[in-house]
Amino acid sequence: MRIRIKAKKKMGTFSMALNADISGDRIGIFGDSGSGKSTIVNLVSGLLQPDNGEIFLDEKCLFSSQQGINLSPEQRRIAIVFQQAMLFPHLSVKSNLLYGYKRCRAEHRHIKPDALIDLLQLMPLLERGVNRLSGGEKQRVALGRAVLANPRLLLMDEPLSALDDTLRFQIIPYLRSVSEEFNIPYLFISHSITEMQLMTDQILVMNNGEVLEETTPEQLARNRMAHSQNGYLNFLRLADPVDQNGLFSYRWGKNHLLLSTGNISGESLFELSSREIILFKKHPEAISARNLLECTVAELFSSDGRVGVVLSAQGKKMVAEIVRAAADELTITTGSTLFAAIKASSFRRLN
Amino acid sequence: MNLTPEDITAIWLSLQVALTATVISLPLGFATAWLLVFKTLKGKVILEVLVNLPLTLPPVVIGYFLLLLLGKNGWLGKVLDEAGIQLIFTWKAAVIASAVVGFPLLVRSIRLGMESIERQLLDASRSLGASWYDSLLTIILPLSLRGIFSGSSLMFARSLGEFGATIIVAGNMPGKTQTIPLAIYDYTSSPSSTAMALSLCFVSVVISVAVLLLHEMLDKQLDRSTAS
Predict the structure, then answer these.
(1) Which residue of A has its CA nearest to B142?
(2) Does residue A98 share a domain with residue A55?
(3) What integer pLDDT is reported at residue B74 of this predicted model?
(4) A299-347 pLDDT tens trace
(5) Which of B48, B117, B186, B218 keeps 20 to 30 A from A33, CA to CA?
(6) Looking at the structure, do residues A179 and A60 belong to the same domain, yes or no?
(7) Last residue of a domain, which of A194, A223, A252?
């Protein structure tokens, strides 16, 4: 998918001047509140009309002030998943799911309700009223409803920000699997670096109604490491642990990691902050941390006075964060060997 | 209870006038509320004032304006007369008077219902392939039902009690244009007819209570269907 936007929009005191040309199937729009992220959603979907300019989705012109083209929202086939689900309160779950599907032309109906209902595990909810759903269930139905409209593009406007952390990480696999399974490109809007890391490949960073830069989630996380509350977040997908003295022992590549939390059956996603990793130049004598990995320094980067150390342990990578003085004292250079100590309780299980 | 055949006719006529006025006003009331809530219009304030004017004007003034408009020499009356349509001093004139007087109440209630609809629900429906009129029929209309019911009840009740405008445009002809309030007015001018007046007052109370109960029932029914 390729999106080209060159458009201006003035709304009261806020004015937007967009100029972006981005390709990819999992594009993120990142920015703080008021940066204009949601305005992009409205401009691309046709809910808002630019003052002038043009918007293209692949080769299809959605808006062009010069050519006098302005496709209505229903002509664009761009579905939206909103922050607050926005399910129709007078309709059942089933009717909500089929709302867009019924309005979709027969030749576009590639995604069938049964397959999607199975994937999103919505079968037990179908006859329920939407007011009897939990926050996570509502968001799953909202996702299903948008996907069943068989859109050419899915716009996800902060779909996770109204959910608590537990629900957030329960929904993410659904968002990803739906897009992969049915091959629907999406624009994912969020102010969370974590969500950008887990959901996107390419990112437009917005600030004050303008595109500040085009970057990758990895680069964004590195750039913002020093200012993020938890530093750079390493995500580890680990499966099938064995019990070791009350701890969960997971294989991570050729390494073994001992975690104080885990799921005995199946796969789990864990988060490890770059600030939870302590580096040693030499093998420490006796330490309380349950994990000590021998690593080589694959790469170094800086982020506002902090140094990010990309560690490679038996082919697996993670980022540790240290202050500049520590980096100088340990004379860390690319290729040098270090020992990384991580407490078993430093890993946070996300789902 | 003591009801004469004229009284019974007045009761039926009142119901007929109130029901007709409510039914014919509904589509226009819905469209007006929709314009006021969802559309950006130039001169919206003027529309607001026009819609709400009958609330503040004395009904007699409204009746007089209607008489000027619909009378034989009136701007619209002339046209209707040429087409062979006679409105003044018929039950249809009573319907028009009731419709004009009750219209602001209808619009206000529907508007309240519409204002409680989240705009993003409409955005969602549009992005799911619904055209604006599809959204209007499948989202706005069902979600405004509570406002429509309460506006209709209010308007129906207001029409039942309409007096000032009705007596001017429809007159007070027993068996032809006399509604319950006009019949009570007649009885109150004669001291010997207190019992007759009270009977009609009682009927008025019964009808009003029935309307309010029906409104409550519909409201509860809506609550149940939304919750399930």
Answers:
(1) A90
(2) yes
(3) 87
(4) 999 998 899 999 998 889 999 999 999 999 989 999 999 999 999 999 9
(5) B117
(6) yes
(7) A223
Q: Is B120 close to A45, i.e. CB distance below 8 A?
A: no
What is the average pLDDT across B39-50?
90
**Can you give the residue range of the structural domain that contains A287?**
233-349
Fold assignment, B5-227: MetI-like fold (1.10.3720)
With CA atoms as reference, the chain B residue closest to A93 would be B228
Q: What is the pLDDT of residues A109-160, one digit of tens each?
A: 999 999 899 888 899 999 999 999 998 899 999 999 999 999 999 999 999 9
pLDDT (0 to 100) of residue B227: 62
Q: Which of B120, B129, B142 is closest, CB to CB, to A149?
A: B129
**pTM for this one?**
0.85
pLDDT tens-place string over residues B201-219 = 999 999 999 998 998 888 8
Q: For the domain that residue A321 is a member of, what is the CATH number? A: 2.40.50.100
**Is the domain of A219 the same as that of A238?**
no
Nearest residue of B to residue A104, measured between CA atoms: B129
The answer to whether residue A215 is domain-embedded is yes
3-class SS string, chain A = CEEEEEEEEEECCEEEEEEEEEECCEEEEECCCCCCHHHHHHHHHCCCCCCEEEEEECCEEEEECCCCEECCHHHHCEEEECCCCCCCCCCEHHHHHHHHHHHCCHHHCCCCHHHHHHHCCCHHHCCCEHHHCCHHHHHHHHHHHHHHCCCCEEEEECCCCCCCHHHHHHHHHHHHHHHHHHCCCEEEEECCHHHHHHHCCEEEEEECCEEEEEECHHHHHHHCCCCCCCCCEEEEEEECCEEECCEEEEEECCEEEEECCCCCCCEEEEEEEHHHEEEECCCCCCCCCCEEEEEEEEEEEEECCEEEEEEEECCEEEEEEEEHHHHHHCCCCCCCEEEEEECHHHCEECC
Say if A228 falls within a structural domain: no
Number of domains chain A is built from? 2
> Residue B43 pLDDT more than 80?
yes
Taking an 8 Å cut-off on Cβ atoms, the answer to whether B127 and A129 are in contact is no
Q: Where are the domains of chain B?
A: 5-227
A88 vs B125: CB contact, 8 Å cut-off?
A: yes
Provide mean pLDDT across the span B99-117. 95
B118 contact residues in A (CB cutoff 8 A): 84, 86
**Residue from the list A78, A82, A129 with its beta carbon closest to the beta carbon of B226:** A129
Which residue, of A223, A247, A271, is where some domain finishes? A223
Average pLDDT of chain B is: 92
Cβ-defined contact of A129 to B128 (cutoff 8 Å) = no
